[in-house]
């Protein structure tokens, strides 16, 4: 890409939003018309954030790249010419907005700059390639049926996999949400709008890779819950609420806080045995990680800070941090290196206990995630109530298809 940078200073960031030409196969449907967006630091090739969505002409498409939600409405005007209405909405603390209407030509870059947040500057560039939206499935919002619960307005496609499975998933999400509300006092006013699709190519609101779409100004969260892909997870919904309430910060802290009630402390203990310090730091500072273990590390690190220093201290850290920078010295009075040393030492000594193991065993079994329940039921089967959990372990192995191990639990 040939994009000319405009430098605003050492803290300058620039971003690219593009409609690209590369073909992509989603759920058996070929589509090569989508919006691609990412941030990079000025003068560096390091990716700070990245997303891409399908585009449908005439529809508003929301791209969430903290600290901004960017709305695009693009329509054909003439041959290789399009109109574009673009609206930028900043997260807290600034809540700045900017709108632009323009005409764009096929394969020509347009740019938008002078967008700032927490003393950093951003630049967005975007282009359109060609219209192939007719090649992928699309379900409008009003084709979904409403499913009410205590904290959510969930919209699902009738008779889909997600519709069939939603009752069990809803209970899991409500319990997770309620833990944040009761124990951490982190909640929201009113019910959250959830749009649950069977596949990522059924709406323009979902990022193609992650299966998640946040439209925070309109209070709508888009997720995929299908037989072969599942992003309708509590940590994704809670991350929406954190951004909505607390605004913009380093990805590690938003992602980590959203995972507070997952089993990251136990899982991170195993991960830390196999990675060096440099990789650990990269996992905490990378705003666009490719390794799924990064989220677990961020979750364990955030939980460690909250439990040791308090949620209030963590919030100060959240407010002072930004992309690629964790302001631990300013917020906690401890350098990042020293804090990491303490965290690693804590993890080395961490021991699983029975109440925690029971909680996660039951949570995972409720979602039929028997593969994830195995290690907890195995731990529990060696305790004083081992016989009860040995039967559970046998069932876990049976449901994942390991019949030999299942039978061995009875011998």
How does the SSE layout of this entry go?
Elements: E1 13-20, E2 24-26, E3 29-31, E4 34-41, E5 47-54, E6 60-65, E7 68-78, E8 81-90, E9 97-105, E10 110-117, E11 120-126, E12 145-148, E13 152-156, H1 161-184, E14 192-197, E15 212-215, E16 220-224, H2 234-246, H3 251-258, H4 264-272, H5 277-285, H6 293-309, H7 311-320, H8 328-332, H9 336-349, H10 354-366, H11 370-381, H12 386-399, H13 403-408
Parallel strand pairs: 13-14, 14-16
Antiparallel strand pairs: 1-4, 2-3, 4-5, 6-7, 7-8, 8-9, 10-11, 12-13, 15-16
Helix pairs in contact: 2-3, 3-6, 4-6, 6-7, 10-11, 11-12
Radius of gyration: 23 Å
Strand proportion, as a percent range, falls in 25-35%
Low-confidence parts? 1-32, 40-45
Shape: globular
Order of helices and strands: EEEEEEEEEEEEEHEEEHHHHHHHHHHHH
Number of strands: 16
Total number of helices: 13
Order of strands in the sheet with most strands: 12-13-14-16-15
Q: Could you explain how this protein is built, in words?
A:
The protein is α+β, with helices and mostly antiparallel strands. It folds into four domains: 13-134, no CATH class; 137-248, Glutaredoxin, CATH 3.40.30; 260-351, no CATH class; 354-408, Serine Threonine Protein Phosphatase 5, Tetratricopeptide repeat. It is built from 13 helices and 16 strands. It has helices at residues 161-184, 234-246, 251-258, 264-272, 277-285, 293-309, 311-320, 328-332, 336-349, 354-366, 370-381, 386-399, 403-408; strands spanning 13-20, 24-26, 29-31, 34-41, 47-54, 60-65, 68-78, 81-90, 97-105, 110-117, 120-126, 145-148, 152-156, 192-197, 212-215, 220-224. The strands form five sheets. A five-stranded mixed sheet has the order 12-13-14-16-15, covered by helices on one side. Strands 6-7-8-9 form a four-stranded antiparallel sheet, with no helix packed on it. The longest helix is centred in the middle third of the chain and has 24 residues, at 161-184. The protein starts with 12 loop residues before the first strand and ends with a helix.
């Amino acid at each position: 890409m040939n994009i000319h940078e405009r430098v605003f200073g050492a803290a300058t960031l620039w971003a690219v939003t593009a409609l690209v030409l590369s073909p992509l196969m989603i759920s058996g449907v070929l589509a090569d018309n989508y919006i691609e967006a990412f941030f990079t630091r000025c003068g560096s090739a390091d990716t700070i954030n990245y997303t891409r969505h399908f585009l449908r002409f005439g529809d508003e498409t929301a791209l969430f790249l903290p600290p901004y939600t960017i709305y695009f409405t693009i329509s054909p005007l003439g041959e290789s010419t399009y109109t574009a209405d673009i609206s930028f909405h900043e997260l807290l603390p600034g809540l700045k907005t900017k709108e632009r209407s323009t005409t764009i030509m096929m394969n020509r870059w347009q740019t938008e700059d002078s967008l700032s947040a927490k003393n950093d500057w951003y630049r967005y560039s975007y282009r359109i390639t060609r219209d192939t939206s007719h090649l992928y499935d699309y379900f409008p919002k009003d084709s979904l049926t409403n499913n009410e619960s205590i904290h959510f307005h969930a919209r699902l496609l009738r008779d889909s996999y997600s519709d069939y499975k939603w009752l069990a998933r809803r209970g899991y999400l409500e319990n997770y949400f309620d833990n944040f509300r009761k124990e951490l006092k982190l909640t929201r006013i009113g019910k959250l709008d959830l749009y649950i699709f069977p596949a990522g190519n059924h709406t323009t609101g979902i990022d193609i890779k992650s299966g998640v779409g946040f439209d925070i100004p309109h209070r709508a969260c888009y997720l995929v819950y299908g037989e072969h892909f599942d992003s309708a997870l509590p940590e994704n919904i809670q991350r929406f609420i954190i951004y909505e309430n607390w605004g913009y910060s380093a990805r590690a802290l938003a992602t980590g806080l959203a995972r507070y009630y997952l089993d990251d402390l136990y899982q991170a203990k195993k991960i830390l045995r196999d990675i060096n310090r440099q990789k650990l730091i990269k996992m905490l500072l990378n705003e666009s990680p490719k390794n799924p273990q990064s989220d677990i590390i961020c979750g364990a690190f955030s939980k460690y800070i909250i439990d040791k220093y308090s949620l209030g201290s963590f919030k100060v850290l959240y407010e002072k941090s930004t992309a690629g920078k964790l302001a631990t010295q300013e917020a906690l009075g401890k350098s990042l290196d020293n804090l990491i040393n303490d965290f690693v030492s804590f993890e080395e000594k961490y021991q699983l206990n029975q109440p925690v193991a029971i909680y996660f065993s039951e949570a995972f079994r409720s979602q039929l995630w028997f593969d994830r329940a195995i290690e907890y039921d195995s731990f529990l089967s060696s305790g004083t109530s081992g016989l009860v959990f040995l039967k559970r372990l046998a069932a876990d192995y049976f449901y994942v298809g390991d019949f030999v191990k299942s039978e061995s639990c009875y011998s």
